[in-house]
């Protein structure tokens, strides 16, 4: 089985896959979303993984492959140690030099975040190109894949959570509110005023960028959203055509499978 780990700035998503055989497709057996560890030791993170597996009645010894996409470099060494100590496996870290099948045509390909590359691999595999992936996490990234399956670049904007925190921090009389879809557009109280501004303001940001990107790429462009807030924003967007909350995990699985022979040669 494959353990796919997507380490973001705020949350970490894990997925356990039963890989495809000659007679079937890969199956997502279990998935978890946790707060990204900031000060946990190797043992603390390992114990947490044991708890997660145990609560689902799963056996950690069944894992024979691990793929990791991390945008938090200080955690990379700890994650490697967890894999080697608790799973006896050398993980496949998505980094320059790893075979992804996705040519990166940006000014500095090594600058592209691992999660963005992984998202694009999965999106092109599932939807074809041209395609735009909107990943709504701590930051919201817009990643563009060409018709030929090349990563062309994109855009990065502050995430909805960051925008909300900035509003609360800088406006003394405004308190934190639940971010959700408002029932009306003209608010009559402070709370619904803030919810309307956050929700529809962010949809305006997303749709404004997508409208311009689609105009440049062509009307046949597909769009897919992923990340913790994908469903919330996509429900009000004019341009998001699909939501796939497991897109990054799917991309990790695809890349792992493409590197399986290489991993075997490395003794993983």
From TrEMBL:
GO molecular function, one term: metal ion binding
Alphabetical list of InterPro entries matching this protein: ATPase_NBD, Type_III_PanK
Any GO CC annotation of this UniProt entry: cytoplasm
UniProt key word Metal-binding: yes
Catalytic EC class: transferase
Active site: 115
Residues given in the record as substrate binding sites: 113-116, 190
Keyword flag Oxidoreductase: no
EC number of the protein: 2.7.1.33
Highest rank taxon of the organism: Bacteria
Named cofactor requirement(s): NH4(+); K(+)
Residues where K(+) binds: 135
Function: Catalyzes the phosphorylation of pantothenate (Pan), the first step in CoA biosynthesis.
Protein name: Type III pantothenate kinase
UniProt gene name: coaX
């Amino acid at each position: 089985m494959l353990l796919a780990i997507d380490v973001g700035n705020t949350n970490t998503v894990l997925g356990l896959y039963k890989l495809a055989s000659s007679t079937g497709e890969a199956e997502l057996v279990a998935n978890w979303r946790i707060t990204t560890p900031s000060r946990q030791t190797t043992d603390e993170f390992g114990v947490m993984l044991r708890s997660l597996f145990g609560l689902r009645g799963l056996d950690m010894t069944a894992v024979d492959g691990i793929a990791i996409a991390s945008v938090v470099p200080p955690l990379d060494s700890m994650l490697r140690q967890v894999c080697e100590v608790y799973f006896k496996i050398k993980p496949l870290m998505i980094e320059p030099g790893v075979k992804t099948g996705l040519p990166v045509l940006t000014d500095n390909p090594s600058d592209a975040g691992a999660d963005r590359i992984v998202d694009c691999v999965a999106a092109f595999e599932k939807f074809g190109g041209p395609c735009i992936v909107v990943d709504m996490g701590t930051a919201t990234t817009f990643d563009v894949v060409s018709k030929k399956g090349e990563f062309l670049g994109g855009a990065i904007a502050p995430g909805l959570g960051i925008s909300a925190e900035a509003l609360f921090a800088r406006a003394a009389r405004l308190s934190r509110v639940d971010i959700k879809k408002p029932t009306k557009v003209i608010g009559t109280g402070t709370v619904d005023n803030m919810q309307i501004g956050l929700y529809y303001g962010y949809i305006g940001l997303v749709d404004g960028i997508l409208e311009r990107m689609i105009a440049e790429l062509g009307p046949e462009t597909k769009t897919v959203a992923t990340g913790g807030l994908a469903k919330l924003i996509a429900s009000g967007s004019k341009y998001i055509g699909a939501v796939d909350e497991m897109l990054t995990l799917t991309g990790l699985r695809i890349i792992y499978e493409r590197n399986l022979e290489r991993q075997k040669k490395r003794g993983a």
